[in-house]
Design a protein that fits this description.
This protein has 129 residues and is mainly α. 71% of the residues lie in helices and 0% in strands. Among the domains are: 39-96; 98-129, no CATH class.
Length: 129
């Protein structure tokens, strides 16, 4: 009975059409930032979005290979992974670090997180950082 009343309430009070949603959601939009962006901030965003785009291409090739059963175009995959590395290298420059430092810190994190190597059990029971 309580669940039925809740469902009725939600149907009456939450139901909206797409135009109403868009109007209500627009209340939280801004026309422009209320601050100036530096060239380095713009480039960091440019490179982060570039990495996301290239990672999306890697994900799409993988999805098509696994779920659509397409043969893997190894050369294309290597090129897309290279594009990811290019953007990672650019982000390292943007954030004043090196790929070597990033790789070392990643291995340190993995060794601390999984001192005996990865396992599902270790993943479930690890302490969150």
């Amino acid at each position: 009975m309580m669940q039925e009343n809740l469902n009725k309430y939600l149907t009456i009070h939450i139901k909206m059409d797409t135009n109403e949603y868009q109007k209500l959601a627009a209340r939280t939009l801004i026309d422009k930032p209320d601050f100036e962006l530096s060239i380095s901030e713009i480039m960091a965003c440019w490179n982060a979005l570039g990495l996301a785009g290239e990672a999306g291409e890697v994900a799409d090739l993988t999805k098509k290979s696994v779920f659509h059963r397409h043969p893997v175009d190894r050369d294309k995959m290597i090129k897309e992974l290279g594009d990811c590395l290019w953007y990672i290298s650019a982000l390292c420059k943007d954030y004043d670090t090196t790929m070597e430092e990033v790789m070392k810190k990643n291995i340190e994190k993995l060794q601390a997180r999984y001192p005996n190597g990865y396992s599902s059990e270790a993943s479930i029971n690890r302490i969150k950082e």
